[in-house]
Amino acid sequence: MATRHDTSNLERRGHTFYWRARVPTRFRKVPPQARLSFSLRLSDHHKAAYMARRLNTLLADLTVRPTAAMTTKNQLDQLFRAEIERMTAHLDDIAFAVRRSGGVDDVREMEADIEVGWAYRLIQLFGTTRALSFEADCSGKSMLLRHSIPEPHVATIAETFRAEQAEARSPVFDRAVRQQMADVGLADTLANRERAKMELYRAKADALLNVAERWPMIDRKQNALVATTLPEEERASLVFEADSAAKAESGDSSVDTNVRVQPEPELSVTEDAEKIALPVEPTSDDEVAEAVPPTVHPIETRAAERPVPDAAPAGRVLHLDAFEASYEALALNNRDNWTTATASDVRMLVRMFRDILEENGVSHSGQIGQQHVAALRQHLNLIPTRYGQSSRLRIMKPAALRAFAADEIARAERRGDALPKVGLSASTIRKHLGNLDTFLNHVRASGYAVADWSLKSLRPRKPKAGALRLAQVKPSPDQVRPIFDLPIFTGCRDASSRHVPGDAVFHGGVYYLPMLFAYLGARRNEFAGLETNDVLDTLHGPAIHIRANVHRNIKNAQSDRLLPVPPELLRLGFLDYVETIRKVGYRQLFPELFSPLLTTNDPGDRFYKDFIPIVKASPHFSSELWKRSIHALRHGFSDTMKQAGVDTAIISDIAGRLGESETALRYTNVAGLPLIKKQLEKYPVITGHLEASPVRLLPWVENEELPPWAGKKPGDRFRK
Q: Which of 288, 481, 493, 545 can pair with 502 through a Cys bridge, CB separation 3.0 to 4.6 Å?
C-alpha cells in the first residue's frame, strides 16, 4: 500500500517513491479527478522529496501561467537587433542609390517604404497564416485606417501583405529563420519559430517605417501617407490591441491607441514547458479580441503561435536526420553504464527505427505513432536471424532486407533445402524493444514531441525462472575435460597451424584463458582484457584483480573482485608467462588479442574467433560443442561448485554477481581470498594430464609485430 509523506504529492510504494498529483481543473480536456503519476525511481527520501517539490513548483507554474514561455526575451531581442541592422543597411544602400540618381526628394520612394513597412507590421501582428480580407469589417483594415493610412494605399498594402505572407510560409524562408535561430541559440520549436518570425517582421517594419533618417529632404507634411510617420511614432514597437479597434470605430475616445510595451522579466527555458499544448489560433475578429490581452508584448502575441494538430503532441520536433545526434547524446549520458556492445546495439536499433519511420513517411518525432512501433516489431519477425553478421545485409533498407529473407526462403523451397532462419529470437527482440523504449524516453526527456507509445503485447514475455534454468547449458568437468586434449595444449605443429598435432606449445590467450574460464567461471572479456599489473602478489598468494582498465570495462560494480590464481595455472607456468610479457614491454596480458589498427578492441571476441574454430576442427567435437560455448564454461563452473556443497553466496562472489539475500547484499563483504581458495579446491582437476613446459610466446608477440588477423593496414584485415 502506498505511504504518504510530508511532501505534497509524494508517496512511497515498497522501496520506491512516486509523485502523484491531481491534474489542475484549468486543463479542461482532462477527465475530472485525473492524476499525474509516475515513478521517481528513487528510494532515498531526501532526494525524492527534492524532486517532488520541484515537480510541484512546475505544476503550480503551469496552473497559474499556462502560457509559460519556451524561450528567453534576450534571444528574441538578438534576432530583432540583427534583423534591424541587416534591414537598415539594405535600405541605406537603396536610399544612397536613389540619391545618386537624383531622386533624393522623390516622395514615391518614401511611400513604397511605408506601404511595405505596414505590410510587414500586419504580418507581425496577425501571423503568417491568418487571412485578412481588407473589407470594411476587417481588423487589419481598421488598424490601418485608425493610424490614418489613406484609403488608396490600403489596397497596395493588402497586395504586399498577401505576397509577403505567402513568402513567410515557404521552405526557403523557414530554413533562413532556423539558421538565424541557431545563431542565437534559440531552440527550434514550432512556437519559437513563429515567435522568431514575428520578431523578424517587427524588425523589418521598424526599419522601413523609420523614413526620416533615409529621406531627410522630403517634407512629410505635404503627403497624406507620409504624414502618418510622426516623430513620436518612428521608433515605436507596436502592440496590437484587437479589442480597441472596435472601440475606436465606435467613437470611444477613451481608447489609447498609442504604443504600449509592457516590461517583461527574463524568462528561462524549461524542457517541460515545451510540452504545453498551444492554444488554437483565433479564426474571427471577436476571438482575436479575447485572445490578445491589451498590453501584451509582441513576443507573446498569441496570434503568432500556430496550432498543433491533434494527432501530434506539442513541442519542438526531432527530425529523422538528427536521430543519430540524439543517440550520441544518449550514449554520452550512459558512458559509465554501457558497454561497447550495448552502445553498438542501441546505435543499430536507432538506425533501424529511423529507416522504418522513413519507410512509413514519417519525417520527425512528432509524427511517430503506435503503428510505427508495431511496424518495427513486425520487421524484426521477417528479417534473417543472423543478418547482423553480414556487412552487406546490415546496410540494407528494411524493405530490401525483408525481400532478401523472402527470396532466400523461396529459393530454399524450390531446391528442397532446409529453410533459412528468419526472425530474431525472443530475447533479442526484447533487447531491441527495450533499447527503443530507452531512446524514445531520451528524446522526450530532451524536450522533443513524441506521442505516447506502448510495448505491451509487442515485447515477448520474459522467460520464467524455471524455463531459464532448463535453457542454460551447464557442462560438467567431465564434459569440459576433452577440450584440453586439443593440440593447443598437448602440442601443435607451429604457430599458424595450432589445430594440427605436433610438438610445439605456445603460451598466450588461447592456452591460458580456457583454463581460467573452467577453474574460475569468469566472463569472457574479464580475463581476455586483463593487464599485466592486474596479476598481483598478495599475502595469500598470487591473485588476479578483475577491474576496469583502458582496454575494456567491467559489467557492473560487483564485477570488481579479487580471485586467486588456480594451482593448475601456477603449475603450468602462468606466472612465468606474466613476467615474460612484462619484460617484452606489453601492457596487455594477452597482446595477440589486440590490434593498434582498430579503434575499438574486444579481446573477448578475438579470443572466441581464435579458439572456437580450433575446437570445431577437432574430430572429438564434430557437432556443436555447446550453445555459447565459452559462456557455458561459466555456467558449468557455478553448477559444479553448487553440487559440491559451496554456498551460493560464495559462488556469486567468485562469479561477480550480486547475492540474493539481504545479508549478502548489505551486511557482509565479499568472500576473501583464503575462503575462495579453499572453496575452489572442490572443483576437480581437469588439466592434470598436461605437462609444464618453458614459456614460449607466439612469434608475432615475441617480435612485437601485428597479429596475422590484423593485416598490414586497416583495409587488409577485411581481405581474404
A: 493
Give the CA count within 13 Å in the CB-facing half-sphere of 260.
12
Of the listed ranges 7-21, 55-69, 88-102, 487-501, the one predicted with least confidence: 88-102
Which residues, listed in sequence order, are joined to residue 422 by a DSSP beta bridge?
A: 384
Torsion angle (degrees, nearest 10) of CA 622, 633, 500, 719 = 90
Backbone angles phi, psi at 694, to 5 degrees: -55, 145
pLDDT interval class at 279 (50, 70, 90):
very low
Backbone angles phi, psi at 62, to 5 degrees: -65, -30
Q: How many CB atoms lie within 10 A of CB 219?
A: 11
- The separation between the first and the last C-alpha atoms of the chain, rounded to the nearest angstrom, is 64
Phi, psi angle pair for 203, to nearest 5°: -65, -40
Q: Which amino acid is at 437?
A: D
Q: How far apart are CA 340 and CA 712, in angstroms?
A: 25
Residue 277 Cα distances to 68, 72, 460, angstroms: 11, 19, 34
Encode pLDDT of 377-417 as tens digits. 999 999 888 887 777 787 888 888 888 888 888 888 888 88
How far is it, in rounded angstroms, from Cα 285 to Cα 428? 58
User: What whole-number distance in Å separates Cα of residue 211 and Cα of residue 202?
Assistant: 15
Cell 500500500 belongs to residue: 1
Listed in sequence order, the residues at least 6 apart from 312 whose beta carbon sits closer than 8 Å to its beta carbon are 366, 367, 449, 451
Closest among 305, 249, 301, 282 to 132, alpha carbons compared: 282
Instruction: Specify whether the CB–CB gap between 282 and 318 falls below 8 A.
Output: no
Cell numbers at residue 566, please? Answer: 588456480
What's the chain's Rg over C-alpha atoms? 37
Q: How many residues comprise the chain?
A: 720
Distance CA 316, CA 187 (A): 8
Q: For residues 593 and 713, is the Cβ–Cβ distance under 8 A?
A: no
Distance, in Å, from the CA atom of 661 to the CA atom of 645, rounded to the nearest integer, reads 18
The whole-angstrom separation of Cα 126 and Cα 140 is 8
Taking residues 470-480, report their average pLDDT: 76
Q: Which of 214, 284, 206, 211 is nearest to 243 (CA)?
A: 284
% residues pLDDT > 70 (the chain): 71
The letter for the amino acid at 128 is T
What angle, 0 to 180 degrees and rounded to 10, lies between the N-to-C axes of helices 190-209 and 171-183? 90
Q: Which strands, in side-by-side order, build the sheet including 561-564?
A: 535-538, 541-546, 561-564
Contact by Cβ (8 Å): 115, 224:
no
Residue 116, all three cell numbers: 511595405
Q: Which residue is it, cell 522513413?
A: 358
* pTM metric for this prediction: 0.50
**Three-state SS for 57?**
helix
415 HSE (CA, 13 A, CB side): 10
Neighbour tally for 424: CB within 10 Å: 22
Ranking 192-196, 226-230, 402-406 by mean pLDDT, the lowest is 226-230
Distances (CA, A) of 396 to 168, 378, 387, 393, 510: 39, 17, 10, 5, 36
Q: In terms of C-beta distances under 8 Å and separation of at least 24 residues, what long-range contacts does 541-544 make, across chains too?
A: 541/565, 541/673, 541/677, 542/570, 542/575, 543/673, 544/516, 544/520
Instruction: Output the nine-digit C-alpha cell for 168.
Output: 513567410
Query: CA 123 from chain center: how many Å?
Result: 37
| Longest pairwise C-alpha distance within the chain | 115
Residue-wise pLDDT tens digits, 336-365: 778 777 888 899 899 999 999 999 989 999
pLDDT band at 476 (very low <50, low <70, confident <90, very high): confident
Exposure string of 499-529, with b = 16+ CB inside 10 Å and e = fewer, is: eeeeeebbbbbbbbbbbbbbbbbbbbbbbbb
Q: Write down the pLDDT at residue 70.
A: 45
